[in-house]
Amino acid sequence: MILVTGGAGFIGANFVLDWLATSDEPVLNFDKLTYAGNPENLEALAGDDRHVFVEGDIGDVEHMGRLLSRFQPRAVVNFAAESHVDRSIHGPEDFIQTNIVGTFRLLEAVRAYWEPLEGAAREGFRFLHVSTDEVYGSLPPDAPAFRESHRYAPNSPYSASKAASDHLVRAYHRTYGLPVLTTNCSNNYGPFQFPEKLIPLMIINALAGDALPVYGDGRQIRDWLYVKDHCTAIRRVLSDGVVGEIYNIGGWNEKANIDIVNIICGLLDELRPREDGESYRSQITFVTDRPGHDRRYAIDARKIERELGWRPAETFETGIRKTVAWYLENTAWVDRVQSGAYRAWIDRNYGERNQ
């Protein structure tokens, strides 16, 4: 069995679904079920004995210790995190508590479980920590992409909290010998993504006839990774990665935010045209940029390709078409996740920005 933390969230749920679609090895899924953790993401696993779901907080050392002792997982894959930059600007303390304190307490529980193990169980155990390219900061337009040796320079409370968690994971390997692996991924997109993030927000707002808010001039560049490609990369790192190593996972898809929005509008014009015949592009609205907005991220994913033989299967063009189609086909899911709390958050984050 493997233990997955944050397995009801966007990336975690996709990982659990893909894992059980390709393996009979059971998953112990541990999630706090905050606003972005949604049991409905795992509905396809209802009645599947290979999937054991437990609600809980990675910061609860005693609870985690009991689960580790009872289920004896051979690996822990840690997705649990607060992950939205805008939310970290409005309320950084949640990010400190979950991403730093929570990771520390999870590491303590895992270390207490791992240290008494013997033989193959001890040698084969792995702790895989899922992180982000945002820990590296912002790149100038013509600078080389982030490599694993790039200096950390986080610029938001979110990325600073993830950087701290990365350092804790490294320290537990160097100090205690805990067999860790760390992955730093680029911007994910795909099914089940909570609609505060750029791509689902644009799809949902477009269909609702609402403004498509684009920060600043929209020329912020990100590398885009289809979530199912990310899942295959994590599986590869877990099975073949070298203990103590860091692996950058990217999609080889650098694109500006405004280009992403235009691509989405073009797909919606094709797949779900507006009744008035106008393009969804007419809904694009440029709003005041967020503080400390990083200008460019780019991942150099040659190490994982060279050493582990992984490369993304999807281009951005194939991945974004699948994503738009998924949101068009799953409007009931979208309606249910857009709670009153979500609408209040959108109003708070975008309502006061000048056009």
- How many strands appear in the DSSP assignment? 12
Helix-strand string: EHEEHEHHHEHEEHEEHEEHEHHHH
CATH topology of one domain: Rossmann fold
User: Can you tell me the overall shape?
Assistant: globular
CATH-defined superfamily of one domain = NAD(P)-binding Rossmann-like Domain
Major β-sheet, in short? Answer: 7 strands, parallel
Average pLDDT level: 94
In the sheet with the most strands, the strands line up as 3-2-1-4-5-6-10
The quaternary structure here is single chain
What share of residues are in beta strands?
Answer: 15-25%
Annotated CATH architecture of one domain: 3-Layer(aba) Sandwich
What structural class do helix, strand and pairing data support? Answer: alpha/beta
Global Rg: 20 Å
Low-confidence stretches: none
CATH top level label of one domain: Alpha Beta
- Which bin fits the share of residues in helices? 40-55%
Tally of individual helices: 13
Termini separation comes to 51 Å
